[in-house]
Each structure stands twice: as C-alpha cells, then as structure tokens.
Amino acid sequence: MMTLRRETFGILGALLIALAACDESTGPEAARQDAVLTSSQEMTLRYGEEKAVGQSVVRLSFGQVNEDSRCPIDAVCVWAGNAQVELGIRAGMGPTYPLRLNTNLEPRSTVWSGIRITLLDVQPAPKASEPTKPEDYSVKVKLEPERK
What we know:
148 residues, alpha+beta, Tick-borne Encephalitis virus Glycoprotein, domain 1, four-stranded antiparallel beta sheet, 18% helix
C-alpha cells in the first residue's frame, strides 16, 4: 500500500511540474500574436508540403486541389476555368485551419490573424491529353500584412 501512494504522489508531482512549466505566453493566443507578418513574401509549396511563414510560429501547408477546370494548354476553351486549392494554416501547435482559394473565382485571397494570403498560381497547367496527378501540383502564394 505504501508503494502505491509513493507512485501516486510521484505522478501528481510530475503533473504539477509540467503545469507550472506552462504559462500563458506559450498557449495558442501567444502563437497567434507571433503571427504578425512585417513584410510581404512569396512562397511555393508542393503538394503535401508545409513551410514556416517568415520567422514566426505560423506554418502554411498545401493539402489538395479540390477542383481544376482550367483550360488545358493543348486545347481551345471559351472560358479560362478555375483551380481551387485547399491550404492549411496554424500557429504553433494549434489546430490547422483550412483555407480554400481560387485562381479565377472568389475568394482568391483571405485574411488569417493579420496575414493576407493570396493564391498567385497553380502548376502545372493542365493538359487534355493526360490528367495531372495530385503529387505533381504546386501552388504559389503571396503572404502580406493585412492592410487596415
């Protein structure tokens, strides 16, 4: 019985030390405060890739292409078409927020935690003769401080 109590106190002590090490400055709100971007930057992400936004704790990822109805480069079209991609953005160890952006329809850009994210390009251009594999896609985005 004595051993059980020592183990219990050991576990409780470890939990208290872990809680004491966590303070408000390391929580999700602190991460969002670090999301402030001071200058514009462009970033290219390959399918499935995640990158840090500048020197902040914010990370941007390219998840998938939801739609690609852009006019193939080896065809003649009446309309240019549209590509819609899904990006993910998160601060620190916080949850990932999905962002859906388009090449020719709205929304082409969105604002998250003071950062404007604009989809500039989706590559490769489609070909009528062969479908594009998901892993062949890449996106180019522009990140800039939100103008108020």
